[in-house]
Amino acid sequence: MAYKNTLITGITDFLVLAILKSKGDCYAYEISKYITSESNELLSISPNTIYTVMYKLENEQMISEYSVLVRKKRTRIYYHIESDGEAYLKELQHDYENMISGMSAIFDSLEKGDTHE
Asked: pTM of the prediction?
């Protein structure tokens, strides 16, 4: 299933930023569980993959993090989308919409048997 991993890797930034923009500040495990449950378990992205994306996006100043004490000795790291992340999300959304439109056009052409030779 290498193709599946390649597709997931390509959309993880997009999903993480979209979730942070829509739901507000979240922690990595929460994002991972949200993706799994809301995709009816068709997409499953491990928390480790989410953490890797978070570190990358934080280094690029797309998101920031802060700690919250949730129990006496437990700290949870929350992530917040920054303005650069919102701008990048718009770019990703535009690219995604163009890709879907382009693929649909190709598949429609193939179904009709169009040839442009």
From this structure: 0.84
